[in-house]
Design a protein that fits this description.
two-stranded antiparallel ribbon; 10 strands; about 10% strand
Length: about 375
């Protein structure tokens, strides 16, 4: 029998990929971005009968058609592998990766749109405009906070009637060191609501330049023989209309005087230099100056010079027992609160005119 050599078709062994080759990839929308695709099996020829069966063919992965071939996708090109882009330096990001990041971060209009260059310029101004608007809102908020946190200034009431302060000569113009006597600190009340008018009961024919000497004479008599701590009158007015500061303590403050026994509290005393009994003429400059001082002092408490005010007696030697409340004109004569003829009949007759002038100076109708 002739020996026959049975030829077998040897199976084809697939070539092993080289060092620089990579297996093909496929897109997996539900998993990682890139997954390797299994190698495509090579179909082998059937061996003759009696030979051992060929190796079992591997089944295709789930989701792929039989044979392991990947279906073609329309409109998509094969993505590049991460290994295809060389790194610029060891450990640093690749140029391709930066390109992809920048491409994703930049807005690109859809295909078919045309964007005018002016629109790009306006979009570039948006951050600056937003910053300016934020600064404006911040400044407005700070102003409102400051305005809300600030304490309001007490406005002068619309019905307040304050007269201007007249010119007043300080007590240093008439009181020298030789005449000055030691005295306690001045005393004060809360306000002034009434004015008592007096006369000094001194000669009338004096020269106005000699008034400081006359006031020193009055001061020496009251602090000497009467043993008062200071001159009793808060203000003195001469025949020329000049006003002098009297009792120490401050002309604008409610200094407690010593002019009307029983009613020195919450009042001020104005003395006309001279004697004004019945028939004695009272200079007009004097009455106008008295009205100016009374209007200013009463205006500080918004007291109408023509009104009536309530005062409480502090001394039973007055016309009212101590502790008794009585009503007085806001501008009254000394004789209303004490048993005396002061300020004289002639000056007492001028008090209605003085009250009217003082009300006019306060701006009252």
């Amino acid at each position: 029998m002739r020996d026959e050599t049975v030829l077998r078709e040897q199976p084809v062994v697939p070539e092993r990929p080289g060092a620089g080759d990579q297996p093909p990839v496929r897109e997996n929308p539900c998993g990682p971005e890139w997954l390797p695709v299994p190698e495509r099996p090579v179909r082998r020829a059937q061996p003759p009968v009696g030979d051992p069966p060929p190796p079992r063919e591997q089944s295709a992965p789930q989701g792929l058609p039989a044979g392991g071939e990947q279906p073609a996708r329309q409109g998509r090109s094969k993505p590049r592998l991460r290994q295809d882009v060389p790194e610029e330096r060891a450990g640093g990001p690749s140029a391709g990766r930066w390109a992809r990041i920048q491409a994703r971060s930049r807005w690109q209009p859809p295909s078919g749109w045309r964007v005018h260059p002016v629109a790009f310029a306006l979009l570039g101004c948006v951050p600056g405009l937003a910053a300016v608007l934020a600064l404006g809102l911040c400044a407005s908020g700070v102003e409102r906070i400051v305005a809300a946190g600030a304490r309001p200034v007490a406005a002068r009431p619309a019905d307040s009637h304050q007269a201007p302060r007249p010119a007043i000569v300080p007590r240093s113009a008439w009181l020298d060191d030789e005449t000055r006597r030691a005295q306690p600190p001045p005393r004060y009340d809360d306000t002034v609501v009434a004015v008592f008018i007096h006369h000094t009961d001194s000669p009338n024919g004096y020269d106005c330049a000699d008034v400081p000497r006359i006031i020193r004479y009055v001061y020496a008599g009251q602090t000497g023989s009467r043993d008062w701590d200071d001159i009793g009158y808060n203000f003195l007015v001469d025949r020329c209309g000049t006003v002098y500061e009297g009792r120490e303590g401050g002309i604008a403050r409610p200094v407690t005087g010593a002019h009307t026994q029983g009613f020195n509290h919450r009042t001020t005393g104005i003395a006309a230099i001279g004697t004004f009994t019945a028939g004695v003429p009272v200079p007009r400059a004097m009455t106008e100056a008295i009205a100016a001082v009374a209007a200013w002092k009463l205006g500080l408490s918004d007291t109408d010079p023509r009104a009536k005010v309530r005062l409480t007696s502090s001394n039973s030697y007055s016309r009212y027992p101590s502790g008794t409340a009585a009503m007085f004109p806001a501008i009254a004569g000394h004789n209303v609160g004490y048993m005396t003829s002061c300020p004289g009949e002639a000056l007492s007759e001028r008090l209605p005119e003085i009250r009217k002038t003082a009300a006019r100076l306060q701006g009252r109708s």
